[in-house]
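Lab notebook page, bench 4
Experiment: in silico fold of construct C2
Operator: M.H.
Input chain length: 605 residues
Purpose: comparison with the prior construct
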Amino acid sequence: MRSTTLARVLSAAALAALYVTLLRRPGPFGAAYLGGLVIGAIVLGVAVLAALGRRPLARFVAHPPFSQPRFRVFFAIAPWMALFAAIIVNGSWWVRQDNAVRLFATYSSAIWSVVWCLADAGKPQLFQTTAAQEMARRLLFGMAAVFMVLGIDGLAFGLTPFGVATSALLALAASAVAAAASFARPVVRGNLAAASVSVLLSLACVEAGLRVLRVGESVLEVDDAFYARQFHHMPPPGATYLNTPKALDEFAPALIEINSLGIRGPEIPPGPVDMLLIGDSFVEARQLAWERTVGPQLTEAFRERSAPMRVVSHGVRGWSPLLEWNWYLKVGRKLKPRTVLLFFFWNDLWSAGDEARTFRAVMGADGRPDHFDVTVEPAWVWYKHVRAMRLLEDVRERADVAAIKRSLAVGQSGFSADEASAESAARRMAGDRLLTNGDLDDLLTRPLPDLKPSLQSVAQAEFWPGIRPMALWTEAQRRAAEVTEHELRLFADDVASDGGRLAIVYVPNAYQIAPTECSVGRYLVGLNGSQQLPPASGIQSWLEGVAERQHIEVIDPSEAMRAYHRAGPSPVEPLHLRADCHWSARGHQFVAGFLADWYLRTGAR
């Protein structure tokens, strides 16, 4: 009895320590968080009073009502069933919660399950057991404890919906196993223990086989706490993973291999390079094999022009000037590039706020980025290391793609990957959200307050803030642009101090080039098959001003791309992929040729 009381006190103390961490979170607290604190206080109060032996709470903990086993099993597993269902419905909701909140909730649920499974533990056993059966009972309790610890670990600290869902399922299994150890007949417990050991050994053999055969090493991108702190997000050196297409895509799975510098592609020989390309997903081009991307294609373009050059390209999806500048300061400048080309897409210019706050950057005294206060999946979260789990997640994602394809096939003889079927599917997905020509004209000519409510939301989303003329920009957008211009100026200064020069490459919006570019994706942003955005945009006007004020050259291939469409044979091979709007293999080749001609024409050598 004394050990049981001590366990209650220790559990309540641990719960109190977790609650204190909730209170120490930097404010202000939102209404939902305050509500959670109130609920947490009630839970903590009940736990403390029960641990101190206050009646009737102590009586409830020792001898809960509904003492029939079926009720107690249900109450023991109920919170995990509810949590698993909530995560399945919206896993992103759970992973957005603070780690402390998730840990408090899952630990409280674990205590709840223990109460329902182990109450009346001091009473004689319901069934007489042999030594072997008692060993099976203890084995089940031990397995339940391990499963519960792993489940709480993943639920509290995991960052992927799949991982936290499997952790909730594991915690549910733990509570069910504990209930079986408490209430099942001895023979049933023995059979369950034997079956559980058999299953665990089988899974261990599967995991060992996967590792011996090196299966699953290239399934998913790896996250690394050190690299996240240094670069916000970037695949660490040596990472290898697959990029798989989605339902409407036409490209094949591409293998992404990261070298020792954290750059996609083979190892880079020592010595200075002539050109360093830095950008986001357009430069990374994870939809294509490495040799078909703009960096290797630029090397080939120079070779064809009898002007061999050393070119290195580095892109990471989701990057923008602050992150690209940060990488140059820490890695890129070591390559001693003579020319640095910074690729600038519409999503690189914030419509409000700034990159430093968005990316939680910690700036140094000189105004340059030092590190980033970001969270990555802890290295000790269990499902991060189980390769079978990673393979299952990959299979689930592929199954989701297949399900989407089947759902798109409603009313058709069958979904086909050909472009016409993909466009038809995209039109159905867009529904009535397509813009009329009048809507398009209003978006490009009217101030935000003069737009009808449905268009006001459109004007502030996706690429529209940058496409709209600068005269229509909001004050928040202008302030954000000033911050970005300051970053670009410092970036150019740093490159110049290293003996090189910085030039900005504007990455045109596919919808500015031709109606046939990104022929499927356009429907998903409200454009139909004939609409085209104007050749000049607010973001291009702003970049021209940056070039004039900061003396940074801006290279814009937009008109050359449109000329390619005008002069090319019909049908013209698109420069962009049909659904995700990144450059196609032809687009990478075209941009590489354009940049090689620019470099040689301007006498930059």
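Observations: Residues 294 and 588 are 5 Å apart (CA to CA). Strands lie at 240-243, 254-257, 275-279, 311-315, 339-344, 361-363, 369-372, 501-506, 553-555.
Next step: discuss at group meeting.
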